[in-house]
Write a structure and sequence with these properties.
Protein name: PAS domain-containing protein
Radius of gyration: 51 Å
Low-confidence stretches: 493-507, 728-791, 1068-1077, 1324-1341
Shape: elongated
InterPro entries: PAS, PAS-like_dom_sf, Tiny_macrocysts_regulators, TPR_TmcB/C
Strand content: 5-15%
Distance between the termini: 65 Å
Organism: Stentor coeruleus
Number of helices: 44
Helix content: 55-70%
Oligomer: single chain
Keywords: Membrane, Transmembrane, Transmembrane helix
Length: about 1350
C-alpha cells in the first residue's frame, strides 16, 4: 500500500505543478507561491532547478536513457546468441525502466522541452522555475534541439512499451492491493495526456493561461471518466487511487481557473486544501458504486470484450461457473474476437480448472505478431511460460513433442545415410576433389554427433520408446560399429506380469509393445490428416509407410460415422472446454482391408507451435474367441471384424449391409438388451441339427450425442462373461493404482538414466524364458547382419599418420604465430624509432629559445638607444624604460634556458657557443678591447650593463658611455652575428637530421622487407613439406573405404529401405574395382595453405609500404619546412629591429647624439645607410620563402589569415596581415633613409611605434606558426601511430579470427577423419596396434 500511495502522490504533485508558473499575475500570488513550490518538489526537474543543477539533471536523464538502450541491446544480443542473461542485469534493467516510466516521465518531458525551447531564441532566465536560472546553461544550440526531440521521443517509446507490457493480466481479488489489470490502454492515455500537458506547459501556458486550464480540466476529466467506466485494475483500492489522482487534477485546475477569474490566489490555495478529504471520499464512493453496478455475464454477452470482461471478473477469480464460463467466453470471442479473451481463458484454465494443457490449446493459436503490443506481449509471455511448464509436467505434451523430435531425428538419420553413401562413392572416384571430401568428412562427423545426441535425448525422455531404441540400436550396430552398445539398446521393455500393472500401462501415455500412437492435424488446411504415427499403428491398420503419407482419419473411421466428422473436429477445436476427448474408450477402427479392429482408444488435444492437434493412443483388444460388429438398433450390420462371418458359420469375407436376422433367423433382435448375454442355437439347415451355440452381447457406447451399437459374439460363454467383467475393471481404474504405476515408471526411468550414463544395459530384463530366448535369437541375427567380418580399430600406421598430421598442423599454427609476431614487432620497432626522431625534430625547443634570445638581444639595443636619446634630450623615456625592463626579464629567462636546452642540440657544431668561449665581444676600458666568452656569459654582461645604465639614469648620472658601448656594439656587432650564425647552422643541422632520418627510414624499410620475405620463404618451404603427411592420411581413408565399400554400402542401403522407405538405387559400382592400379592420392595441401597464409605477408608488406611511403613522406615534407618557417619569421622581426636602429643612426648623422660621434675612436658597425639597405633587401628575399607551398601547408587557416589576409583591432597599415604590414614598413624605411632629407622626430616616433606594433604582432604570429606547424606534424605522426596500431590489431585479428580458426578446423578435420575411420570396417589383413599406449593415443585423437 505504501508503494501505491507514494507513487500516486508523486504523480499528483507532478501534474499539479503544471497548473501555475512563477510569473502568475493574480493578487497575493507571492504570498502563497511557497506552498505550491513545496508541492512541486516531488517533480525532480523542479528540485534540480531549486538547487541550480538543472543542466546536470539533463545529463543524468541522457545517461539514464542511454543505459536503458544499452541494456536492451545487451539483452537482445544475449537472446540472439541463446544465452541466459544474468539476474542482476535483468533486475537493474527492470528497476531503471520502471523508475523512468513511472516516476521520471513528466520531469523528463519538461526538461527536454525546456532544452528544446532555450536552445533557440534570446532568453536570459528560465521562466518555468523560481529563481534566476541562466537560460544560457540550457542552450545547446541547434544540436540541442535535435537531441532533446530525440530523447523526448525515446522516453515516450520506453514509457509506452512499459505501460503496454509491464503488467500482469491474471485476475486478482478485488480487495487485493495488486496492480494487475486487464489492459494498458487507460494508462497509455494518461501518459499521452501528461506528455501534451508538459508540452503546453512549456510553450503555451504563459501566453494562454485560461485556455490552458480549460484544456487541462477537459483532458483530465476524460481520463477520470475512462478510469471509472473501464475500471482497468482488478483491485478496488488501485482503481480508487488512479481515479482520485485524475479527478483531483481536474478539480484543482478548476480552482485555479476560478482564482484567475476572480484575480486572487487565495481561492486555489484554500479550496485545494479543504476539498482533499471531500475528493477522497467522493472518489472512493464513485469507484465502489461502479463496482457494484457491473452487469452479469448474460447481460453483457453481446458487448465488446473490454465491457464483457468486467462482468466475468469475479467468476474468473472464484471458478464458480467451471467449464460453463469457457463456453460463454467462446461465444463472446465469436462475436468480438479479442486476444485478451483467449488470454483470460488460458489463465482461467490454469488457475481455476487446473488444466494447463487446455489453457495451452486456447492460447497457442493466438498470434502474437502485429502492432497490437498491448496484447501481443502478454500472449507471447503466456505462451512461453505455458510451453515450458507443459514440457516439464504434462505427459501428453511430452509425448507430442517426442513425435515431433522423433520425426526430425528420423529426417536427420535419413540425411546421414544418404550423406554417408555419397561419401563412400565420392571417395572412390578417380580424381576426387579435396574440398568435397573435407565437406563430407565434416558433415558426417557433425551429423554423427547430432544423431547420437538426439536419439539419446529421446530415449532418456521415453525409455520405453521401442521404435526409437530399435532405430538407434540398429544405427549403432550396422553403421557406427558400436555393436555391444547397440545390442543393449535393442533390448525390450521389462515384462509386466502383474495384471493391474498391465491395465495401468494401457491407461497412460506410455509405450508398450503393442500400443499404437498417431497424431491428427488440427490445422484448417490439413484437418484430419495423420501427421505423426508409430510403427505399431501402420502395422495395425495394415498399410505401408509410403501409403500413410497423405492418410486421413476418415479412412480408419467406420463409414457410418464419416459424414461430417471434420466438421465435428473443427467445432470441437473452436468450443472445447476440456482437452480430453476419450479416456480408455472401447471403440474400433477400420484396417486397410475394411475390417473392424477392436481397441481401447484414448485421445486428447495438444497445442504446439500454432495449431491444436489430436494425439491418440490405441490399445488393440486381442481375443481369439470373440468377434464384433457395428449394427443399427434394428440389426443392420454396417461393419464387422475379420472373423465375424466365420463365427456365424459363413465362409465369406464380408457380411456387411445385411440384417442380422437374415443371417441368423433364430435370433430375436428385440431380445438383445445392452450388457445382457443372449444365447442362440445355430441350426445346420442341410443336416437339420444344431451346429453350435453362440453367445451374443450388445454394448452401447456414447460418443458425444452419437450412440454406437457394438454386437459381440462368441462360442465361449466363459470368455464372454470374463470380457464383461474385465471391461468394467479396465474402465474404472483405482487412483491408488495409478500412483503405484507412476512410482514404478519413475523408478524404471531413474534406472535407465543411470545405465545410460554408465554405458551398461538399458534394462534388466526379467521376462519369461521364451522372451529371453527370443531376444537372444534377435541379437544373434543382428550380430550376423552387422560388420561380422570387419574390424573397426585403427592400425598402427593409421594411428601414426593421424598423430603426424596433427603434429605438423600444430607446428604450422606455431610458425604462423611466430611470423605474425615478427611482422608486428618489426612494425613496432620501426614506428618507435621514427616517432622518437620525429618528436625530436618537431620539437625545435632549443631553436625557438635561441631565436627568442636573439630577438631579445636586438630589442635590447633598440630600447636602450631610445632610453638614451630620451634622457639626453630631456624627453619622456618612461615607456621605453618599461619596455627595457620587461626585455631584461626575458633575457634572464632565456639565459637560464641555454644550459637546459644544450643536450637537445649538442649534436650540432654551433652548440659550442654555449659552453666554449668562442664568441668575441668588445669592452670599453681605457680603449676598446676585444675579448671572447660564452653566449651565457655575454648575455649576463649585457643584462649587467643595462641595469647599470638604468641605475645611473635614475641618479641623473650620464657617465654610462662604457655601458652603452658594450650594449650597442655587442648587440649589433660580432657577438650578435655569431648568434645569428649559430641559428643558421642549427637550421642546417635540423635539416640534415631530417635527411638522415629519411635515409635510415629507407634502410628500415629494406630490413622489414627482408624479414618479411625470410618469414614468407620459411613458411613456404615448411608448408611444402606437409603434403606427404596429409596425403598419407587421406590414402589410408581411401583404403579403408575401398576395403569395406560393398559391406557398408549394402548396410546403408538396407537401412534406407527398411527405416526410410527409400527404394534402393542401382548404381554402377565397378569404378572402384581397379582402385589398386591407380596412383596414390596427391592433394596439394601446401598450395592451399600458401594461398591463404600469403594474405598475412601481403598485408604486412602493404602496411609497411603505406606507413613509410605515404604517412612518413608527408611528415618528412613538413619536417623540412618547419625550421625554415620559424626561422624566417624570426629573421624578419630581428631585421626589422636592425632597420630601426640603422635608420635612427642615419637620421642622427653627425650630431653629437649619434653613435659615431659618441664613440669616434671605434666603429665596428657598418655604415648606417648601407646596413639598413642590406637588412631591407634581406627582408624582401624572405617573401619568396613564405610563398612556398610547403610553408603554406604548415599554416593553420587562422595563421594564414593573420599573415596574408586580415587582422582585426589593429592599425590600418597592418590590418591586411603581417605580410603586407611589413612590406609597408619596408617602404617607409626606404623612404626615411633615401629621401635625402632630415626627417622630424615625430616621423621617426610614428615609424618606431609602427615597428613596435608589428614586432608585437609578429611575436604572436611566430608563436602561432610554431605551435600550428608542430600540431600539424604531431597529427600526422598520430595518424601514422593509429595506422600502425590498426595494422597490428588487424594482423592479430586476421590470425585469431581467420588463420587460427582455419588451422584448428584442419586439426579438427583430422579428429573427424579418425571418427570416420572408426565406423568404416576393415576386411583386409591389417596389423592392429600392438601396445596399449598406441590404442590410448588413437582414442585421444
Amino acid at each position: 500500500m505504501f508503494k501505491i500511495l507514494t507513487l500516486n502522490y508523486i504523480i499528483l504533485a507532478q501534474n499539479i505543478q503544471l497548473l501555475w508558473n512563477p510569473e502568475l499575475t493574480i493578487n497575493s500570488w507571492d504570498k502563497y507561491s511557497k506552498f505550491w513550490e513545496i508541492i512541486r518538489i516531488p517533480s525532480f526537474d523542479a528540485a534540480a532547478a531549486k538547487f541550480n543543477v538543472l543542466p546536470q539533471f539533463f545529463y543524468v536523464l541522457v545517461a539514464d536513457l542511454g543505459i536503458i538502450l544499452a541494456l536492451i541491446i545487451s539483452l537482445c544480443i544475449l537472446r540472439f546468441i541463446k544465452r541466459k542473461p544474468p539476474v542482476i542485469v535483468l533486475a537493474i534493467a527492470r528497476f531503471i525502466w520502471t523508475v523512468t516510466s513511472e516516476i521520471v516521465f513528466i520531469p523528463a518531458i519538461i526538461c527536454f522541452m525546456i532544452v528544446f525551447k532555450y536552445s533557440s531564441g534570446n532568453y536570459v532566465y528560465v521562466q518555468e522555475y523560481v529563481g534566476e536560472i541562466i537560460a544560457e546553461n540550457m542552450n545547446f544550440g541547434s544540436s540541442g534541439k535535435i537531441l532533446s526531440a530525440f530523447l523526448c521521443f525515446l522516453v515516450i517509446v520506453y514509457t509506452f512499451v512499459y505501460e503496454s507490457c509491464a503488467f500482469d493480466i491474471k485476475v486478482e481479488n478485488e480487495k487485493s492491493l495488486n496492480d494487475s489489470r486487464l489492459h494498458g490502454k487507460v494508462n497509455i492515455s494518461i501518459r499521452i495526456i501528461s506528455m501534451l500537458n508538459c508540452i503546453l506547459y512549456v510553450f503555451f501556458q504563459k501566453t494562454n493561461y485560461e485556455v490552458y486550464l480549460i484544456l487541462f480540466i477537459v483532458l483530465h476529466g476524460l481520463l477520470s471518466f475512462g478510469m471509472v467506466y473501464y475500471i482497468p485494475y482488478y483491485s478496488i483500492f488501485v482503481n480508487f487511487m488512479q481515479f482520485f489522482v485524475q479527478f483531483n487534477c481536474s478539480c484543482t485546475a478548476i480552482f485555479f481557473l476560478i482564482g484567475d477569474f476572480l484575480n486572487t490566489a487565495q481561492i486555489p490555495f484554500i479550496t485545494t486544501i479543504i476539498f482533499q478529504p471531500i475528493l477522497l471520499i467522493l472518489s472512493y464512493e464513485t469507484v465502489l458504486y461502479r463496482f457494484s453496478h457491473i452487469p452479469e455475464p448474460c447481460e453483457s454477452f453481446g458487448k465488446p470484450f473490454e465491457i464483457y470482461a468486467l462482468s466475468i471478473r469475479k467468476y474468473l477469480g472464484n471458478g464458480e461457473l467451471k467449464e460453463g464460463l469457457i463456453k460463454s467466453m467462446n461465444n463472446n470471442y465469436k462475436a468480438y474476437p479479442n486476444k485478451l479473451n483467449r488470454l483470460l481463458q488460458t489463465y482461467y484454465c490454469i488457475d481455476e480448472l487446473k488444466n494447463p494443457i487446455l489453457g495451452l490449446n486456447k492460447i497457442i493459436t493466438t498470434s502474437h505478431g502485429g502492432l497490437d503490443i498491448f496484447s501481443n506481449f502478454q500472449v507471447y509471455k503466456c505462451k512461453s511460460a505455458l510451453k515450458t511448464y507443459c514440457s516439464e509436467n504434462c505427459e501428453g505434451f511430452k509425448l507430442y513433442k517426442y513425435f515431433v523430435d522423433f520425426a526430425l531425428t528420423k529426417e536427420k538419420d535419413h540425411f546421414f545415410c544418404n550423406l554417408y553413401s555419397n561419401f563412400l562413392s565420392k571417395m572412390l572416384e578417380k580424381s576426387p576433389e579435396l574440398k568435397k571430401l573435407k565437406f563430407f568428412v565434416k558433415e558426417l562427423a557433425q551429423n554423427m554427433k547430432k544423431l547420437k545426441t538426439n536419439y539419446e535425448e529421446l530415449i532418456t525422455s521415453f525409455p520405453s520408446a521401442f521404435e526409437t531404441k530399435e532405430m538407434y540400436g540398429s544405427l549403432l550396430i550396422h553403421i557406427f560399429c558400436e555393436v555391444e552398445i547397440g545390442h543393449k539398446y535393442m533390448s525390450k521393455m521389462p515384462g509386466s506380469d502383474n495384471l493391474h500393472m498391465k491395465i495401468m500401462l494401457k491407461n497412460n501415455f506410455n509405450f508398450t509393445s503393442d500400443r499404437c500412437f498417431f497424431v491428427v492435424s488440427g490445422k484448417e488446411l490439413t484437418l484430419g490428416k495423420i501427421i505423426y504415427y508409430n510403427k505399431n499403428f501402420i502395422n495395425l491398420i495394415g498399410i505401408s509407410d509410403e501409403t500413410i503419407h497423405g492418410f486421413y482419419l476418415d479412412e480408419i473411421i467406420p463409414p457410418l460415422f464419416r459424414d461430417g466428422h471434420n466438421k465435428h473436429l473443427k467445432n470441437f477445436l473452436e468450443n472445447h472446454t476440456n482437452n480430453i476427448i476419450f479416456h480408455t474408450y472401447s471403440l474400433c477402427i477400420l484396417d486397410a482391408s475394411g475390417y473392424l479392429v477392436e481397441c481401447i482408444i484414448s485421445s486428447e488435444t495438444i497445442g504446439y507451435k500454432s495449431s491444436v492437434d489430436f494425439i491418440c493412443t490405441i490399445d488393440p483388444v486381442k481375443s481369439k474367441d470373440k468377434e464384433m460388429a457395428i449394427i443399427t438398433p434394428n440389426g443392420y450390420i454396417w461393419s464387422h471384424t475379420k472373423g465375424f462371418p466365420l463365427m456365424l458359420g459363413f465362409e465369406v469375407d464380408f457380411v456387411e449391409h445385411k440384417f442380422l436376422n437374415s443371417l441368423i433367423p433364430d435370433i430375436d433382435i428385440e431380445n438383445l438388451k445392452p450388457n445382457q448375454l443372449v444365447k442362440v442355437l445355430i441350426r445346420d439347415i442341410e443336416k437339420k441339427k444344431f451346429k453350435k451355440c453362440l453367445n451374443f452381447l450388445l454394448k452401447i457406447e456414447k460418443v458425444g450425442k452419437v450412440s454406437i451399437y457394438f454386437l459381440y459374439v462368441s462360442a465361449d460363454e466363459a470368455e464372454m462373461r470374463r470380457f464383461m467383467t474385465d471391461r468394467n475393471e479396465d474402465l474404472n481404474i483405482d487412483p491408488n493404482k495409478s500412483k503405484i504405476f507412476a512410482s514404478y515408471m519413475q523408478s524404471n526411468f531413474e534406472e535407465f538414466k543411470t545405465n545410460v550414463v554408465k554405458k551398461v544395459a538399458i534394462f534388466d530384463e526379467r521376462g519369461s524364458r521364451a522372451d529371453i530366448d527370443k531376444d537372444n535369437e534377435m541379437n544373434e541375427k543382428s550380430k550376423i547382419s552387422s560388420h561380422s567380418s570387419s574390424v573397426t580399430f585403427l592400425t598402427f600406421r593409421e594411428s601414426l599418420s593421424l598423430n603426424k598430421a596433427i603434429r605438423v598442423l600444430n607446428i604450422t599454427k606455431l610458425v604462423l604465430l611466430i611470423s605474425t609476431i615478427v611482422i608486428i614487432a618489426s612494425n613496432i620497432a620501426i614506428l618507435s624509432y621514427i616517432s622518437k626522431e620525429v618528436n625530436h625534430s618537431n620539437s625545435l625547443q632549443a631553436f625557438n629559445h635561441l631565436s627568442s634570445l636573439a630577438y631579445a638581444v636586438s630589442q635590447m639595443a633598440l630600447y636602450m638607444r631610445m632610453v638614451d636619446l630620451g634622457y639626453q634630450n630631456s624627453l619622456d623615456y618612461q615607456s621605453d624604460l618599461n619596455r627595457t625592463l620587461n626585455n631584461l626579464e626575458l633575457l634572464k629567462t632565456y639565459q637560464n634556458l641555454l644550459f637546459s636546452d644544450y643536450d637537445s642540440w649538442s649534436y650540432c657544431k654551433s652548440s659550442k657557443i654555449i659552453k666554449k668561449s668562442v664568441i668575441p665581444y668588445w669592452v670599453l676600458e681605457n680603449k676598446p678591447t676585444l675579448k671572447t666568452g660564452t653566449l651565457h656569459e655575454i648575455i649576463g654582461l649585457l643584462i649587467q650593463n643595462a641595469y647599470e645604465i638604468i641605475a645611473k639614469i635614475e641618479k641623473n648620472d650620464n657617465s654610462y658611455d662604457d655601458n652603452l658601448f658594450f650594449i650597442i656594439f655587442n648587440s649589433l656587432g660580432s657577438s650578435f652575428q655569431q648568434t645569428n650564425l649559430a641559428l643558421k647552422n642549427l637550421v642546417t643541422c635540423e635539416l640534415n637530421r631530417v635527411d638522415k632520418l629519411s635515409t635510415i627510414k629507407n634502410y628500415l624499410l629494406i630490413i622489414a622487407i627482408v624479414i618479411l620475405a625470410a618469414s614468407a620463404l620459411f613458411m613456404v618451404f615448411y608448408l611444402l613439406s606437409i603434403d606427404k603427411f596429409l596425403n598419407i592420411l587421406w590414402e589410408y581413408v581411401r583404403k579403408r573405404v575401398h576395403s569395406g565399400y560393398f559391406e557398408v554400402k549394402h548396410l546403408v542401403l538396407e537401412r534406407l529401405t527398411q527405416y526410410h522407405n527409400e527404394i534402393e538405387n542401382t548404381e554402377n559400382e565397378s569404378e572402384h574395382v581397379d582402385y589398386k592400379s591407380k596412383k596414390e592420392l596427391k592433394f596439394w595441401h601446401s598450395f592451399m595453405y600458401i594461398s591463404r597464409f600469403s594474405l598475412l605477408f601481403f598485408f604486412g608488406g602493404l602496411f609497411f609500404g603505406v606507413s613509410i611511403l605515404v604517412f612518413y613522406e608527408n611528415i618528412h615534407g613538413y619536417l623540412i619546412y618547419r625550421p625554415t618557417l620559424v626561422y624566417t619569421l624570426m629573421r624578419r622581426r630581428i631585421e626589422m629591429t636592425e632597420i630601426c636602429i640603422y635608420t635612427l643612426e642615419y637620421e642622427l648623422g653627425n650630431s653629437t647624439l649619434s653613435i659615431k660621434s659618441r664613440f669616434p675612436m671605434f666603429n665596428d658597425l657598418k655604415e648606417p645607410k648601407q646596413a639598413a639597405e642590406n637588412a631591407l633587401d634581406s627582408i624582401v628575399t624572405t617573401r619568396k620563402v613564405l610563398r612556398e607551398k610547403g610553408i603554406i601547408k604548415l599554416m593553420s587557416p587562422e595563421l594564414f589569415t593573420k599573415i596574408y589576409e586580415r587582422i582585426s583591432g589593429v592599425s590600418t597599415f597592418i590590418s591586411l596581415g603581417t605580410f603586407r604590414g611589413l612590406a609597408f614598413l619596408v617602404q617607409e624605411a626606404r623612404y626615411i633613409v633615401f629621401n635625402n632629407m632630415s626627417d622630424s622626430l615625430e616621423t621617426l616616433k610614428i615609424f618606431f611605434s609602427h615597428v613596435l606594433e608589428y614586432n608585437s604582432l609578429s611575436v604572436t604570429v611566430s608563436l602561432s606558426a610554431n605551435s600550428d606547424s608542430k600540431e600539424i606534424i604531431e597529427k600526422q605522426l598520430s595518424k601514422l601511430i593509429y595506422f600502425n596500431g590498426f595494422c597490428c590489431f588487424f594482423l592479430c585479428m586476421i590470425y585469431l579470427l581467420y588463420f587460427y580458426p582455419f588451422l584448428c578446423g584442419e586439426i579438427d578435420l583430422v579428429h573427424k577423419i579418425t571418427k570416420i575411420l572408426m565406423i568404416i570396417p576393415q576386411t583386409i589383413e591389417v596389423k592392429p596396434m600392438k601396445s596399449r599406449n598406441e590404442s590410448t593415443k588413437a582414442n585421444k585423437i
